[in-house]
């Protein structure tokens, strides 16, 4: 009986693995087609000042529907990374974000847009040149583009990434360390890195207000290094209140707004400018 059970388990296991392999292959070929057809979309999640609530910019987030079903970037970005498709997808995201930021700037006024950059893109020796060309092609003022790079990606090979980061910074784009606090940063490196913004990871914002140690530490560190802070994943009024009191600069999360379509984001920008809320840009 034991042997039988083991045998059944084995059969079950292989079928499960086959299913997963098939699902993965379908995802991969779906991604390839989507890249060729450019059938992705960007949504835009606002960031606001912690004190006062003025709009300070947006983060562009990619969206993809595969066979009619929305697939989360957490599921397909890793596949895009493994297959190298991320290079083309990343280029599309950059183009689309810069095109949109330029149009908004011309129609309403300057509003920065942040773009997420993956490990493979950052490691690509042509990346800084690509960013420069995209900015030129769309006539985008460099200070309207912010690049978000996760802490784990930057810190995994700081010395290798440093020249690229310096080149990007020299172009005039801003650099944010995303999901800060989840990796392990060498403080010595952090001081040398050409970064402007630390984004406090959602998991630490989620701990507020009862377990504030990490959020407090990141804010204090940023203040020491003259970096600005953005809290991601702000969902409650208590969290917002704590962050504003603690001196966090900007907030992002469902409490403020879900990610918006380009049209809805533009409507928000029009309201912000109409309310005479000059965006705090040259800061
Ligand atoms: P991220 O850059 O840290 O983005 C924040 C994620 O948290 C987004 O998920 C956003 O929709 C979600 N979020 C925002 N506010 C809240 C909140 O209050 N509560 C909760 N529970 N979630 C919130 P999304 O869009 O699914 O993206 C997941 C990750 O996928 C991103 O994390 C980023 O690492 C990656 N990603 C998204 N778009 C792109 C892209 O265009 N290129 C690359 N390379 N990566 C991307
Ligand atoms: Mg991000
Ligand atoms: Mg993040
Ligand atoms: Mg995150």
UniProtKB/TrEMBL annotation:
EAL domain residues: 24-273
Name this polypeptide is given: Diguanylate cyclase
Source organism of the structure: Azospirillum thiophilum
Lineage: Bacteria, Pseudomonadati, Pseudomonadota, Alphaproteobacteria, Rhodospirillales
First-to-last residue of the parent protein present: 416 to 698 of 698
